Amino acid sequence: MSSQIRVAILGATGAVGTELLELLESRNFPIADLKLLASSRSAGRTLPFQGEQLPVEAVSENSFKGIDLVLASAGGSTSKAWAAKIVEAGAVMIDNSSAFRMDSQVPLVIPEVNPDAAATHQGIIANPNCTTILMAVAVWPLHQVQPVERIVAATYQSASGAGFQAMEELKTQTQAILKGETPPTQSFPYPLAFNLFPHNSKLNEEGYCEEELKMVNETRKIFNAPQLRVTATCVRVPVLRAHSEAINLEFTEPLPAAKAREVLANAPGVRLVEDWQANYFPMPMDATGKDEVLVGRIRQDLSHPCGLELWLCGDQIRKGAALNAIQIAELLVERNLIQPAKAMAAY
Ligand code: A2P
Protein backbone atom coordinates (compact mmCIF):
# COMPACT_ATOMS: atom_id res chain seq x y z
CA MET A 1 0.00 0.00 0.00
CA SER A 2 1.39 3.37 -0.99
CA SER A 3 1.67 5.93 1.78
CA GLN A 4 -0.56 8.23 -0.28
CA ILE A 5 -4.17 7.37 0.45
CA ARG A 6 -7.21 7.81 -1.77
CA VAL A 7 -9.85 9.19 0.58
CA ALA A 8 -13.61 9.75 0.35
CA ILE A 9 -15.70 11.68 2.87
CA LEU A 10 -19.31 10.50 2.98
CA GLY A 11 -21.34 13.35 4.47
CA ALA A 12 -18.76 15.98 3.44
CA THR A 13 -21.23 18.88 3.68
CA GLY A 14 -22.25 18.17 7.29
CA ALA A 15 -20.93 19.58 10.57
CA VAL A 16 -18.52 16.67 11.08
CA GLY A 17 -17.78 16.32 7.34
CA THR A 18 -16.52 19.89 7.00
CA GLU A 19 -14.37 19.45 10.12
CA LEU A 20 -12.93 16.23 8.62
CA LEU A 21 -11.97 18.23 5.55
CA GLU A 22 -10.29 20.91 7.65
CA LEU A 23 -8.39 18.33 9.72
CA LEU A 24 -7.18 16.36 6.68
CA GLU A 25 -5.66 19.62 5.44
CA SER A 26 -4.29 21.01 8.71
CA ARG A 27 -2.79 17.68 9.82
CA ASN A 28 -1.24 17.00 6.41
CA PHE A 29 -2.88 13.62 6.03
CA PRO A 30 -1.12 11.81 3.14
CA ILE A 31 -3.83 12.16 0.52
CA ALA A 32 -3.42 10.97 -3.05
CA ASP A 33 -6.95 11.89 -4.00
CA LEU A 34 -10.02 13.23 -2.17
CA LYS A 35 -13.64 12.63 -3.09
CA LEU A 36 -16.46 14.55 -1.40
CA LEU A 37 -19.77 12.71 -1.15
CA ALA A 38 -23.15 13.75 0.21
CA SER A 39 -26.80 13.41 -0.76
CA SER A 40 -28.15 14.45 -4.15
CA ARG A 41 -29.22 17.72 -2.47
CA SER A 42 -25.58 18.79 -2.40
CA ALA A 43 -24.48 17.64 -5.86
CA GLY A 44 -22.87 20.55 -7.67
CA ARG A 45 -21.77 22.34 -4.50
CA THR A 46 -18.06 22.85 -3.92
CA LEU A 47 -16.00 22.87 -0.72
CA PRO A 48 -12.54 24.37 -0.19
CA PHE A 49 -9.54 22.09 0.23
CA GLN A 50 -5.86 23.03 -0.05
CA GLY A 51 -6.66 26.24 -1.88
CA GLU A 52 -8.99 24.61 -4.41
CA GLN A 53 -12.73 24.19 -4.64
CA LEU A 54 -13.57 20.47 -4.78
CA PRO A 55 -16.92 19.33 -6.19
CA VAL A 56 -19.40 17.47 -3.99
CA GLU A 57 -20.91 14.40 -5.65
CA ALA A 58 -24.11 12.56 -4.80
CA VAL A 59 -23.10 9.16 -3.39
CA SER A 60 -23.76 6.34 -5.87
CA GLU A 61 -22.93 2.72 -6.67
CA ASN A 62 -19.61 3.71 -8.25
CA SER A 63 -18.47 6.22 -5.64
CA PHE A 64 -16.05 3.90 -3.82
CA LYS A 65 -14.15 2.33 -6.73
CA GLY A 66 -10.43 3.03 -6.31
CA ILE A 67 -10.88 4.46 -2.81
CA ASP A 68 -8.69 3.23 0.10
CA LEU A 69 -10.35 5.00 3.02
CA VAL A 70 -13.89 6.26 3.58
CA LEU A 71 -14.59 8.65 6.43
CA ALA A 72 -18.35 8.36 6.90
CA SER A 73 -20.44 10.88 8.76
CA ALA A 74 -23.85 10.92 7.14
CA GLY A 75 -25.96 9.14 9.76
CA GLY A 76 -26.59 5.50 10.61
CA SER A 77 -28.94 4.62 7.78
CA THR A 78 -26.55 6.03 5.14
CA SER A 79 -23.64 4.09 6.70
CA LYS A 80 -25.67 0.89 6.70
CA ALA A 81 -26.77 1.47 3.12
CA TRP A 82 -23.20 1.89 1.80
CA ALA A 83 -21.00 -0.24 4.11
CA ALA A 84 -21.12 -3.37 1.93
CA LYS A 85 -20.21 -1.38 -1.21
CA ILE A 86 -17.34 0.32 0.60
CA VAL A 87 -15.86 -2.93 1.95
CA GLU A 88 -16.46 -4.70 -1.37
CA ALA A 89 -14.48 -1.94 -3.11
CA GLY A 90 -11.55 -2.81 -0.82
CA ALA A 91 -11.71 0.41 1.18
CA VAL A 92 -11.61 0.74 4.95
CA MET A 93 -14.56 2.62 6.43
CA ILE A 94 -14.18 4.73 9.56
CA ASP A 95 -17.77 5.23 10.55
CA ASN A 96 -18.95 8.07 12.75
CA SER A 97 -22.49 6.75 13.05
CA SER A 98 -23.81 4.33 15.65
CA ALA A 99 -24.64 1.72 12.97
CA PHE A 100 -21.79 -0.73 13.69
CA ARG A 101 -20.41 0.35 17.07
CA MET A 102 -21.70 -2.61 19.05
CA ASP A 103 -21.04 -5.16 16.25
CA SER A 104 -18.59 -7.70 17.68
CA GLN A 105 -16.67 -7.77 14.36
CA VAL A 106 -16.16 -4.02 14.38
CA PRO A 107 -13.51 -2.41 16.58
CA LEU A 108 -14.61 0.71 18.44
CA VAL A 109 -11.51 2.83 18.75
CA ILE A 110 -10.19 5.82 20.67
CA PRO A 111 -6.48 6.07 19.81
CA GLU A 112 -5.54 7.27 23.32
CA VAL A 113 -7.35 4.30 24.87
CA ASN A 114 -7.41 1.17 22.72
CA PRO A 115 -5.30 1.74 19.58
CA ASP A 116 -4.48 -1.96 19.23
CA ALA A 117 -8.14 -2.80 18.61
CA ALA A 118 -7.83 -1.11 15.20
CA ALA A 119 -5.65 -3.99 13.96
CA THR A 120 -8.61 -6.38 14.24
CA HIS A 121 -10.71 -4.54 11.66
CA GLN A 122 -12.39 -6.39 8.84
CA GLY A 123 -13.15 -3.35 6.75
CA ILE A 124 -15.06 -1.20 9.23
CA ILE A 125 -13.84 0.70 12.28
CA ALA A 126 -16.41 2.54 14.37
CA ASN A 127 -15.84 5.95 15.88
CA PRO A 128 -17.51 6.04 19.30
CA ASN A 129 -20.30 8.34 20.42
CA CYS A 130 -19.09 11.87 21.22
CA THR A 131 -19.93 11.96 24.95
CA THR A 132 -18.37 8.51 25.33
CA ILE A 133 -15.12 9.60 23.67
CA LEU A 134 -14.77 12.69 25.86
CA MET A 135 -15.45 10.72 29.05
CA ALA A 136 -13.19 7.80 28.09
CA VAL A 137 -10.20 10.02 27.27
CA ALA A 138 -10.36 11.44 30.82
CA VAL A 139 -11.28 8.28 32.74
CA TRP A 140 -8.99 5.75 31.02
CA PRO A 141 -5.67 7.13 32.39
CA LEU A 142 -7.12 7.09 35.93
CA HIS A 143 -8.41 3.55 35.38
CA GLN A 144 -4.80 2.54 34.58
CA VAL A 145 -3.51 3.62 38.00
CA GLN A 146 -6.57 2.66 40.06
CA PRO A 147 -9.34 0.49 38.55
CA VAL A 148 -12.68 2.25 38.22
CA GLU A 149 -15.67 0.20 39.39
CA ARG A 150 -18.49 2.59 38.68
CA ILE A 151 -19.06 5.74 36.61
CA VAL A 152 -21.99 8.12 37.13
CA ALA A 153 -22.14 10.75 34.39
CA ALA A 154 -24.35 13.76 33.74
CA THR A 155 -23.91 15.41 30.36
CA TYR A 156 -24.55 18.94 29.12
CA GLN A 157 -24.67 18.44 25.36
CA SER A 158 -24.48 21.20 22.77
CA ALA A 159 -26.58 21.65 19.65
CA SER A 160 -23.71 20.53 17.37
CA GLY A 161 -24.37 16.90 18.31
CA ALA A 162 -27.46 17.10 16.10
CA GLY A 163 -25.61 18.62 13.13
CA PHE A 164 -25.38 21.92 11.28
CA GLN A 165 -29.12 22.38 11.02
CA ALA A 166 -29.51 22.11 14.79
CA MET A 167 -26.77 24.71 15.35
CA GLU A 168 -28.55 27.10 13.00
CA GLU A 169 -31.83 26.34 14.76
CA LEU A 170 -30.37 27.34 18.13
CA LYS A 171 -29.30 30.70 16.65
CA THR A 172 -32.65 31.40 15.00
CA GLN A 173 -34.52 30.33 18.15
CA THR A 174 -32.41 32.73 20.22
CA GLN A 175 -33.13 35.61 17.82
CA ALA A 176 -36.86 34.75 17.74
CA ILE A 177 -37.17 34.69 21.53
CA LEU A 178 -35.28 37.98 21.86
CA LYS A 179 -37.78 39.51 19.42
CA GLY A 180 -40.69 38.10 21.41
CA GLU A 181 -41.59 35.62 18.67
CA THR A 182 -42.33 31.89 18.92
CA PRO A 183 -39.07 29.96 18.33
CA PRO A 184 -39.14 27.56 15.35
CA THR A 185 -38.42 23.89 16.15
CA GLN A 186 -37.37 21.42 13.50
CA SER A 187 -34.24 19.53 14.53
CA PHE A 188 -35.28 19.39 18.18
CA PRO A 189 -38.67 18.56 19.68
CA TYR A 190 -38.63 21.63 21.96
CA PRO A 191 -36.98 25.04 21.93
CA LEU A 192 -33.36 24.72 23.04
CA ALA A 193 -32.65 28.47 23.30
CA PHE A 194 -33.03 29.68 26.92
CA ASN A 195 -34.01 26.12 27.81
CA LEU A 196 -32.67 22.59 28.21
CA PHE A 197 -34.20 19.15 28.04
CA PRO A 198 -33.25 15.50 28.59
CA HIS A 199 -31.60 14.08 25.46
CA ASN A 200 -34.21 13.55 22.76
CA SER A 201 -33.06 10.08 21.63
CA LYS A 202 -35.37 7.06 21.89
CA LEU A 203 -36.26 5.82 25.39
CA ASN A 204 -36.20 2.18 26.41
CA GLU A 205 -38.58 0.46 28.85
CA GLU A 206 -36.25 1.12 31.78
CA GLY A 207 -36.33 4.84 31.08
CA TYR A 208 -32.84 5.22 29.59
CA CYS A 209 -32.44 7.05 26.29
CA GLU A 210 -30.22 5.75 23.49
CA GLU A 211 -27.53 8.36 24.16
CA GLU A 212 -27.24 7.22 27.79
CA LEU A 213 -27.03 3.56 26.76
CA LYS A 214 -24.30 4.42 24.25
CA MET A 215 -22.22 5.78 27.13
CA VAL A 216 -22.82 2.58 29.11
CA ASN A 217 -22.25 0.00 26.38
CA GLU A 218 -19.58 1.73 24.33
CA THR A 219 -17.43 2.51 27.38
CA ARG A 220 -17.55 -1.16 28.38
CA LYS A 221 -16.51 -2.23 24.88
CA ILE A 222 -13.70 0.34 24.53
CA PHE A 223 -12.31 -0.40 28.02
CA ASN A 224 -12.78 -4.15 27.41
CA ALA A 225 -14.56 -4.18 30.77
CA PRO A 226 -17.96 -5.83 30.27
CA GLN A 227 -18.74 -5.66 33.98
CA LEU A 228 -17.96 -1.95 34.41
CA ARG A 229 -20.91 -0.23 36.09
CA VAL A 230 -21.85 2.92 34.17
CA THR A 231 -24.94 5.11 34.38
CA ALA A 232 -25.65 8.43 32.73
CA THR A 233 -28.19 11.22 32.41
CA CYS A 234 -27.84 13.03 29.10
CA VAL A 235 -29.16 16.55 28.71
CA ARG A 236 -29.22 18.90 25.73
CA VAL A 237 -28.20 22.47 26.65
CA PRO A 238 -28.27 25.73 24.66
CA VAL A 239 -24.56 25.69 23.82
CA LEU A 240 -23.55 25.84 20.16
CA ARG A 241 -20.68 23.38 20.14
CA ALA A 242 -18.59 21.48 22.77
CA HIS A 243 -20.15 19.17 25.32
CA SER A 244 -19.62 19.21 29.09
CA GLU A 245 -19.85 16.32 31.54
CA ALA A 246 -19.95 15.98 35.32
CA ILE A 247 -18.37 12.62 36.15
CA ASN A 248 -18.41 10.76 39.43
CA LEU A 249 -15.97 7.86 39.65
CA GLU A 250 -15.86 5.09 42.19
CA PHE A 251 -12.55 3.23 42.39
CA THR A 252 -11.66 -0.10 44.01
CA GLU A 253 -9.38 1.83 46.43
CA PRO A 254 -9.24 5.57 47.17
CA LEU A 255 -7.47 7.63 44.50
CA PRO A 256 -6.32 10.94 46.03
CA ALA A 257 -7.37 14.01 44.03
CA ALA A 258 -3.72 15.14 43.90
CA LYS A 259 -2.71 11.84 42.27
CA ALA A 260 -5.59 12.03 39.80
CA ARG A 261 -4.53 15.58 38.93
CA GLU A 262 -0.94 14.45 38.34
CA VAL A 263 -2.08 11.57 36.12
CA LEU A 264 -4.42 13.76 34.07
CA ALA A 265 -1.81 16.51 33.68
CA ASN A 266 0.30 13.95 31.77
CA ALA A 267 -2.47 12.06 29.99
CA PRO A 268 -2.60 12.09 26.17
CA GLY A 269 -5.45 14.15 24.75
CA VAL A 270 -6.20 15.82 28.11
CA ARG A 271 -5.54 19.39 29.28
CA LEU A 272 -5.89 20.11 32.96
CA VAL A 273 -7.77 23.40 33.45
CA GLU A 274 -7.95 24.38 37.10
CA ASP A 275 -7.50 27.77 38.71
CA TRP A 276 -9.06 27.37 42.14
CA GLN A 277 -8.39 31.00 43.15
CA ALA A 278 -10.16 32.39 40.11
CA ASN A 279 -12.86 29.70 40.13
CA TYR A 280 -11.84 29.01 36.53
CA PHE A 281 -12.50 25.55 35.16
CA PRO A 282 -13.32 24.00 31.76
CA MET A 283 -16.01 25.78 29.77
CA PRO A 284 -17.49 24.83 26.39
CA MET A 285 -16.41 28.17 24.93
CA ASP A 286 -12.79 27.41 25.78
CA ALA A 287 -13.04 23.85 24.48
CA THR A 288 -14.49 24.93 21.11
CA GLY A 289 -12.07 24.29 18.27
CA LYS A 290 -9.55 22.64 20.59
CA ASP A 291 -8.18 19.12 20.22
CA GLU A 292 -7.86 18.28 23.93
CA VAL A 293 -10.51 17.31 26.44
CA LEU A 294 -10.38 19.99 29.15
CA VAL A 295 -10.62 18.48 32.65
CA GLY A 296 -10.86 20.20 36.02
CA ARG A 297 -12.61 20.55 39.39
CA ILE A 298 -11.04 17.26 40.43
CA ARG A 299 -12.05 16.64 44.02
CA GLN A 300 -12.66 13.93 46.59
CA ASP A 301 -16.30 12.79 46.62
CA LEU A 302 -17.52 13.74 50.11
CA SER A 303 -20.05 10.93 50.06
CA HIS A 304 -17.68 8.02 49.34
CA PRO A 305 -14.08 7.26 50.40
CA CYS A 306 -13.29 5.72 47.00
CA GLY A 307 -15.14 8.40 45.04
CA LEU A 308 -13.79 11.22 42.89
CA GLU A 309 -15.60 14.06 41.13
CA LEU A 310 -14.46 15.75 37.93
CA TRP A 311 -15.78 18.10 35.29
CA LEU A 312 -14.84 18.11 31.61
CA CYS A 313 -15.53 19.91 28.34
CA GLY A 314 -14.59 18.80 24.86
CA ASP A 315 -15.33 19.88 21.33
CA GLN A 316 -18.01 17.48 20.19
CA ILE A 317 -17.30 17.98 16.49
CA ARG A 318 -13.54 17.72 16.94
CA LYS A 319 -12.36 15.10 19.51
CA GLY A 320 -15.96 13.89 19.89
CA ALA A 321 -16.14 13.04 16.19
CA ALA A 322 -13.91 14.28 13.33
CA LEU A 323 -10.57 14.45 15.15
CA ASN A 324 -10.97 10.98 16.65
CA ALA A 325 -11.78 9.62 13.17
CA ILE A 326 -8.70 11.30 11.67
CA GLN A 327 -6.53 10.00 14.51
CA ILE A 328 -7.82 6.49 13.73
CA ALA A 329 -6.95 7.06 10.07
CA GLU A 330 -3.45 8.22 11.05
CA LEU A 331 -3.06 5.12 13.20
CA LEU A 332 -4.05 2.92 10.24
CA VAL A 333 -1.46 4.62 8.04
CA GLU A 334 1.25 4.39 10.72
CA ARG A 335 0.61 0.68 11.26
CA ASN A 336 -0.02 -0.11 7.61
CA LEU A 337 -3.58 -1.25 8.36
CA ILE A 338 -5.32 0.25 5.33
CA GLN A 339 -5.79 -2.90 3.33
CA PRO A 340 -8.71 -4.55 1.60
CA ALA A 341 -10.84 -6.41 4.15
CA LYS A 342 -10.37 -10.16 4.52
CA ALA A 343 -13.98 -10.76 5.52
CA MET A 344 -16.83 -8.81 4.05
CA ALA A 345 -19.72 -11.25 4.20
CA ALA A 346 -21.19 -9.74 7.35
CA TYR A 347 -21.97 -6.40 5.73
P1 A2P B 1 -26.51 16.83 2.50
O1 A2P B 1 -25.86 18.12 2.94
O2 A2P B 1 -26.47 16.63 1.02
O3 A2P B 1 -27.86 16.62 3.10
P2 A2P B 1 -25.21 17.06 9.61
O4 A2P B 1 -24.80 16.01 10.59
O5 A2P B 1 -24.49 18.35 9.79
O6 A2P B 1 -26.70 17.20 9.53
O7 A2P B 1 -24.74 16.48 8.16
C1 A2P B 1 -25.16 15.26 7.62
C2 A2P B 1 -24.34 14.90 6.40
O8 A2P B 1 -24.82 13.66 5.88
C3 A2P B 1 -24.47 15.89 5.25
O9 A2P B 1 -23.27 15.94 4.53
C4 A2P B 1 -25.57 15.28 4.41
O10 A2P B 1 -25.55 15.65 3.05
C5 A2P B 1 -25.20 13.81 4.53
N1 A2P B 1 -26.35 12.95 4.19
C6 A2P B 1 -27.55 12.91 4.82
N2 A2P B 1 -28.33 11.98 4.24
C7 A2P B 1 -27.61 11.40 3.24
C8 A2P B 1 -27.85 10.39 2.29
N3 A2P B 1 -29.01 9.73 2.23
N4 A2P B 1 -26.86 10.07 1.41
C9 A2P B 1 -25.67 10.71 1.46
N5 A2P B 1 -25.38 11.69 2.35
C10 A2P B 1 -26.32 12.03 3.23
Summarize this structure briefly:
29% of the residues lie in helices and 24% in strands. By secondary structure, it is of the alpha/beta class.
Average predicted local confidence, pLDDT: 96
Tell me which CATH architecture of the largest domain applies here: 2-Layer Sandwich
Structural class: alpha/beta
Domain module tally: 2
**Beta-strand content estimate:** 15-25%
Number of helices: 8
**Unreliable spans:** none
User: So what's the overall shape?
Assistant: globular
Through-space gap between termini: 24 Å
- Element order: H for helix, E for strand: EHEEEEHEEHEHEHEEHEHEEH
Describe the structure.
This protein is of the alpha/beta class and 347 residues long. The protein has two domains: 138 residues, 3-Layer(aba) Sandwich (Rossmann fold), CATH 3.40.50.720; 186 residues, 2-Layer Sandwich (Dihydrodipicolinate Reductase, domain 2). The protein is built from eight helices and 14 strands. Strand 1, helix 1 and strand 2 form a beta-alpha-beta unit. Helix 1 packs across helix 8 and helix 3 crosses helix 8. The longest helix is centred in the C-terminal third of the chain and has 17 residues. It starts with a strand and ends in a 13-residue tail after the last helix. The structure holds adenosine-2'-5'-diphosphate. The site of adenosine-2'-5'-diphosphate has 17 residues, from helix 1 and helix 4.
